[in-house]
Every structure is written in C-alpha cells, then in structure tokens.
Amino acid sequence: MRKLFFIFLTIVATLPSFAQKSKKDKLMERKQRINALVKQEEEGVIAYHKQSAFGFKLTSDGYGGFFEVGRSKSVKKALLFQFELTERKHPKEEKQSNFSIPSSPFVYGKINYCYPLKLGVQQQYLLGNKTNRNGITVTANVGGGMALALLRPYNLEVNDLNKGVRKYIRYESSDSTLYSSTGQSTHVADSILFTNSSLLSFLQVSGAGFTRGWNQITVTPGLYTKASLRFDYGKYNEQLSALEVGLMAELYSKAIPQLVYSNPRQFFISAYVSILFGKRK
C-alpha cells in the first residue's frame, strides 16, 4: 500500500512538467511550421491542399460579393469553386428628384433591378511565385458556369395629391396608366422620363424603397465565362490576401429589360476588380 502511494505521488509531481513540456512543444511545432512555410515560399512552392476565401468586387456595371473554395491539384494547378452575387446597373441610370414636392429620389425609366447570381468552376495556373515571404504570387484563372439573372421589379410610390390616393406601381404594368386632370391617359414611366411638369403638379412621385418587389422576382437562366489575373500578397502560404482583375462575359436565355426606351440586352461583357481574404491548409 505504501508503495502504491509513493507511485501516485511521483505521477502527480511530474504532471506540471509534462504540461509545460507540451506547451513548449506546441510553440516549437508552430515555429518550425512557419519556418517551413517561409522556406517553401523562398523556393517557389505553393504549399496547401485546400483553401477558402470570400471577397468583394467592383465591376464596370455594378458591384457584389463572392465565396470561393479551392483544391490544389499540383504545385502549379488548382481548382476553384465559386459562388457570386452582384447587382448590375444600366449605364444610363440616373437618379432624379421632384423639386416641386419633397420626395425620395428615383431612377427615371427603370424597369427592373438585376441581380446576377453565378455558380461556377475555375482552373487556376501558377505563373510566378514569391521570391520571398514579402513577394507576390501571380496566377491566371479561367473558367465559367451557370448564371441566373434575378429580376426584381422597380416600384414607384405615387401620391395623387388631388384625390388623396397613394399607390405603388411598377413600369410596364397595368397600374402604370393613370389619368391626368384633363382626362387624358398618361403613362407614368414616359411622364417621368420626359419630366412632365403638368403631371408632377398633382402627382408626388418617389422611389418605393428596398423592401418592394421581392415577391415579384423572376429568374432568367444563362451561362457565363471569365478570365482573370490574381496577385496574392499574403505574408505566408496559409494566408490568402489577393487582388484580382479580369473580364467576364454572360449570355442569358432571353433579353434582360432594365430601362424604358433602352433596348434590353441578352449578352453582357464587363471588367472587374476584386479583393479576397481567406485561409489555406
């Protein structure tokens, strides 16, 4: 019994040293791993099996965000799976206000908000690796996938000050025809487009806001392809910090109506710049 008690005291006395050693081992392992990553970068090696990243992008016709998951196939190749949601704006969009009556600004002649949603795959090719841990890795990305144009109708809030009636209307709908004080039919979209002062004298027109039109969304399917250059300036290979510039083309099954008196387009080409943040393992 005395012998067992002595063994128990010995084990208890050595536990703190084991814990301390374990902590030191973890610090040493981390230091060795960082040194190995630095050495690999200096030798021009991308050392990772998978990566995940999110980012924000500005396009020549809008803005948005995306999420990406990557799988390394070799030292020089990787496969990127991407999910992206942006908002596309027509180049002729212009906000306007009713100066005679205080109201929220609106985009004259606008028919739909357009939200391209994309799900695709890109092949990544290594062009040039970092010469040291403060350098830049350059890769080329080429690929494409499925695109869905989510169209949310643009709604206006119209107040008839004479009749005391307020209603929400959208362009190209049956609600878009009202009658002026002379009894003549007037199309609200056309009247706003040409800033008809006689109509604005008894109608208060303003934007309906972000909450309107979500229950009226329609979807137009399509395909997209894109090519880009990515400049990764992350300190270590386990960190992904990059700037990307590229071109993208989209083709939809039918034309996308965005503005009154502007021909709807089925094919879009845009340039973009994006910034990414993520991790590698």
Explain how this protein is built.
The longest helix is centred in the first third of the chain and has 41 residues, at 2-42. The chain is α+β, with helices and mostly antiparallel strands. It is built from 3 helices and 15 strands. It has a domain at 41-89 and 111-152 and 216-280: Porin (Beta Barrel). A hairpin with an 8-residue loop joins strand 14 (239-256) and strand 15. The strands form 4 sheets. The protein has an 8-stranded antiparallel β-barrel. Strands 9-8-12 form a 3-stranded antiparallel sheet, with no helix packed on it.
Largest sheet: 8 strands, antiparallel, barrel
What is the count of helical runs?
Answer: 3
Strand content: over 45%
**What is the total tally of β strands?**
15
In terms of topology, how is this protein built?
Blueprint: H1 2-42, E1 50-59, E2 62-72, E3 77-88, E4 95-96, E5 106-107, E6 112-128, E7 137-153, E8 155-160, E9 165-170, E10 177-179, E11 185-187, H2 188-193, H3 197-200, E12 203-207, E13 218-232, E14 239-256, E15 265-280
Keyword list:
3 helices; alpha+beta; 18% helix; 281 residues; three-stranded antiparallel sheet; Porin; single chain; eight-stranded antiparallel beta barrel
Task: Provide a concise account of the structure shown.
With 281 residues, this protein is α+β, with helices and mostly antiparallel strands. It contains 3 helices and 15 strands.
